[in-house]
Every structure is written in C-alpha cells, then in structure tokens.
C-alpha cells in the first residue's frame, strides 16, 4: 500500500480516481485547492502525488517548484488539459516525473502510478547504482564519475532510469520518444540520436569499453554490470 495525494478540483474526476486507486490498495488523501495541497505536503509525507495544474487558486506548477526547492524527491504525476509539447516540457522541467494529458483512460493512469511506485521502491534511500563509469543515487539525484561528484541533466537521469528498468533489453527509438520524451513515436526529430550519442560518451568505461550500445535497426541497449566489466 502506498500513500497518495491527489490534487484535483474536478469533483467527478477526483472521486473516480480515488475509487480506482483505493481499489488498488492505496491510501488516498485529496485536495481541490493549491493552498490546501501546500499545507498538506508540509504536514504529511506521501509516496506519490497526482497533481492537476489548473486549480481554482493557482497553478499546480507552483506546488511542484515548491516541493523541489524544499528537497522533496516524491514522484509527481501531472494531470492536465495542457497537452502541447511546450506544456509537457515545462512540467517536466519543473520537476515532474511523468505527465498525462486530459482526457486520459483510467487504466493508463493506474499503470503510470504503479510504474512510478515501482521505480521509487527500486531506488531505495541512499542506494547507488553502478552504470559504466558512473555511480548514481537516483532518489537524491547525485552522481559520481570515477569516484568524483559530477552532474547529469534531468533528462539524462530519466533515460538511464528507463533503460535500467528494462534491464538490458533493446529499447527502440520510438519507445524512448513515447515513454521518456512523451512525443509521438512517428516524430522525425534527431533529438534521441544526438542525446544517446552524448550519453554513450559519459558512460563509456576506461579503455573505451562501451556500456550503451546502438543496435542497428532496433534501438539501444544498456549493458548489465557483468557484461560491461
């Protein structure tokens, strides 16, 4: 059972989400106003926050910014009618972990909630994961390269988390566009290719041993520790 905070002003949607998530065994707390959500998050801790952006007394982005400034690493799933690419980029840039545009199907929302909770459980407090030359504490968003503190961007963390969740499988460019960048898999942008080339250089082991492979015609594969040593 996880403790979830739902911040949503639409009473019908709020009730349906509460019922669906309680049926999954989760403990639900709800708020319809930004001010109430701010107060609740100062008094209680949660395993995940579902956050609407268009609230009667303000923008849900304010809560996201506030939580990250306070050092909170609670996963945040944004729910909003703002479905443009710019809005998604803004939400993820504010510190959200996932973004779901309205209207959405309830099974997809439940699946994304469960995926975020699995990721949170996998990265326990202070747990470091070895990836090539890097040691990463995903929850604290801290990284060390060859034992020295270094910096990754938010998108670099997100891509590495996704590849690690897939545990050595080949992940297609289209899947990355859809699941990480939240873009159409038919998008012709070169963003993924350029990004993965840069990430490959960051991860590359001493001696030039590759950790992130390009599989021609299929996608990308992150080698497991025993394969890349």
SSE layout and pairing:
Elements lengths: L2 E5 L3 H13 L3 E5 L2 H10 L4 E5 L1 E2 L2 E2 H10 L6 E5 L4 H9 L4 E4 L4 H17 L6 E3 L2 E4 L4 E4 L2 E3 L3 H12 L4 E2 L1 H7 L11 H13 L8 E4 L3 E4 L2 H4 L1
Parallel strand pairs: 1-2, 1-3, 3-6, 6-7
Antiparallel strand pairs: 4-5, 8-9, 9-10, 10-11, 12-14, 13-14
Helix pairs in contact: 2-3
How would you characterize the overall build of this protein?
The chain is 41% helix and 23% strand. By secondary structure, the protein is α/β, with parallel strands linked by helices. It has 2 domains: 3-122, Response regulator (Rossmann fold), CATH 3.40.50.2300; 129-228, Arc Repressor Mutant, subunit A (Orthogonal Bundle).
How would you concisely characterize the structure shown here?
This protein is an alpha/beta fold.
Q: Helicity level, as a percent range?
A: 40-55%
Query: CATH H level of the largest domain: which superfamily?
Result: Response regulator
Strand order of the largest sheet: 2-1-3-6-7
Q: Percent of residues in beta strands? A: 15-25%
Structural class estimated from helices and strands: alpha/beta
The helix-strand sequence is: EHEHEEEHEHEHEEEEHEHHEEH
Number of beta strands: 14
Task: Please indicate the count of domains.
Answer: 2
Distance between the termini: 38 Å
The CATH architecture of the largest domain is 3-Layer(aba) Sandwich
Give me the Rg, rounded.
Answer: 18 Å
**Shape type:** globular
Number of helices: 9
Low-confidence stretches: none
Mean pLDDT: 84
CATH fold name of the largest domain, please? Rossmann fold
Major β-sheet profile: 5 strands, parallel
Name of the top-level CATH class of the largest domain: Alpha Beta
């Amino acid at each position: 059972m996880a403790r979830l905070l739902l911040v949503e002003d639409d009473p019908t949607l709020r009730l349906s989400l509460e019922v669906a998530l309680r049926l999954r065994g989760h403990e639900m707390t709800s708020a319809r106003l930004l001010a109430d959500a701010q107060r609740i998050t100062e008094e209680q801790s949660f395993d995940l926050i579902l956050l609407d952006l268009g609230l009667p007394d303000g923008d849900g982005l304010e809560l996201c910014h506030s939580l990250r400034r306070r050092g909170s690493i609670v996963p945040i799933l944004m729910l909003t009618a703002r479905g443009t690419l710019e809005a998604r980029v803004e939400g993820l840039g504010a510190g959200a972990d996932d973004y779901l545009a309205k209207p959405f199907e309830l099974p997809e929302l439940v699946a994304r909630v469960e995926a975020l909770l699995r990721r949170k459980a996998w990265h326990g407090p202070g747990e470091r994961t070895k990836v090539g030359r890097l040691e990463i504490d995903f929850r604290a968003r801290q990284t060390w390269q060859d034992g020295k503190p270094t910096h990754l961007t938010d998108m670099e963390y997100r891509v590495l988390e996704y590849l690690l969740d897939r545990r050595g499988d080949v992940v297609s460019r289209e899947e990355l566009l859809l699941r990480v960048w939240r873009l159409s898999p038919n998008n012709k942008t070169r963003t993924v290719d350029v990004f993965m080339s840069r990430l490959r250089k960051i991860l590359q082991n001493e001696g030039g041993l590759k950790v992130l492979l390009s599989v021609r015609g299929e996608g990308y594969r992150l080698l497991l520790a025993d394969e890349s040593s």
